[in-house]
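Exercise 7. Given the encoded structure of a 362-residue chain, write a plausible sequence.
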């Protein structure tokens, strides 16, 4: 395949929207066919000819560039299509090493555009799994966001997070979802799960009803409706995973949950792995150690399940009101927290949610 002047100039124009230096694209003979500097068009690029001869990236500092006719400091990288060198990408700048990462990202973009022009990729931008994993990693670099922008993937477009757990693997779900909701991203996970990042943040129920018609059996879904740009999606993804784990434990009969349904337990779930919750757990750990038969912990669970109603709790446990009062007094003595007082009850409730998660993982 020959690299066309039109495609070369498109690569240049996309790159120069975000890169400070000039960008050149050369064909397989080293002729500049796309450039941010019109005066350099259709001239020979000495650095590109070296790249073509050696088949590798060539970085030029100011001294090295001065020894080559018409060359400028920067970095030049080969462009391949299906293993065949079809051109060279050049990015100018004084610090070639500092340019290397953005130039490599730009090279990937250029090669995808070349494949797209050859009909090997669809014209609609499709988010690649490796790039999405990098974008969602904590501390992802600004260069990755720029690369996604060059690919037309609109990383700054706010998206919500919908986590889907299928009863069986659904390998074709990502392609369908990105066609079904334009500008959405999809990321596969283990155990037949998919993360679906959708612009618009509309309630997903109507979309979920379409899944059986595609042959997919949905076991459970967890929705975080707050839409955020790519820089906030790593945090939102963790929240979706926490919500799914909490729903399985606290709402096993619910197949669709949203963050509002379990906001506090989901937040606490995140604290288990991301902060030190020992201070909150310590009173209940004392209670557990003294409560050999689990009677007091069962009472505490029932107390909160019955919304702290003495009559309802006593009936649920098959106790007289005085028997319940005796157990609550023992809980207070062992923990230093009285479940009949709101502030103490709130602390005990949060600790109980944390402890349930701790025991489930033990």
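Solution.
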């Amino acid at each position: 395949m020959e690299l066309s002047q039109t495609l070369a100039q498109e690569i240049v124009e996309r790159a120069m929207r975000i890169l400070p230096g000039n960008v050149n694209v050369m064909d397989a003979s080293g002729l500049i066919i796309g450039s941010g500097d019109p005066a350099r068009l259709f001239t020979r690029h000495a650095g590109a000819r070296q790249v073509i001869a050696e088949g590798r990236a060539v970085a030029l500092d100011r001294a090295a560039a001065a020894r080559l006719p018409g060359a400028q400091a920067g970095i030049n990288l080969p462009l391949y299509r299906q293993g065949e060198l079809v051109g060279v990408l050049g990015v100018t700048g004084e610090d070639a090493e500092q340019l290397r990462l953005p130039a490599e990202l730009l090279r990937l973009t250029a090669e995808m555009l070349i494949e797209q022009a050859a009909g090997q990729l669809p014209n609609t931008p499709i988010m690649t799994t490796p790039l999405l994993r990098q974008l969602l990693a904590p501390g992802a670099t600004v260069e990755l966001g720029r690369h996604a922008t060059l690919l037309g993937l609109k990383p700054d477009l706010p998206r919500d997070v919908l986590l889907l757990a299928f009863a069986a693997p659904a390998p074709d779900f990502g392609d369908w979802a990105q066609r079904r909701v334009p500008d959405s991203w999809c990321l596969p996970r283990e155990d037949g799960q998919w993360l679906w990042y959708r612009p618009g943040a509309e309630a997903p129920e109507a979309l979920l009803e379409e899944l059986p018609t595609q042959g997919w059996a949905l076991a459970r879904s967890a929705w975080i409706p707050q839409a955020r740009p790519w820089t906030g999606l790593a945090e939102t993804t963790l929240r979706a995973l926490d919500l799914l784990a909490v729903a399985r434990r606290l709402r096993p009969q619910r197949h669709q949950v949203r963050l509002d349904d379990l906001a506090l337990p989901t937040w606490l779930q995140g604290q288990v792995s991301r902060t030190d919750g020992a201070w909150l757990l310590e009173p209940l750990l004392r209670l557990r150690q003294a409560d050999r038969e689990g009677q007091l912990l069962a009472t505490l669970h029932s107390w909160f399940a019955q919304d702290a109603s003495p009559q309802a709790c006593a009936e649920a446990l098959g106790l007289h009101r005085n028997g319940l009062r005796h157990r609550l007094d023992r809980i207070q003595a062992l923990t230093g927290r009285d479940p009949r007082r709101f502030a103490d009850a709130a602390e005990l409730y949060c600790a109980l949610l944390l402890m349930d998660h701790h025991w489930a993982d033990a």
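Remark. Strands lie at 23-27, 32-35, 58-60, 74-81, 84-92, 159-166, 185-188, 193-199, 218-228, 256-258. Students should compare their own answers with the one above.
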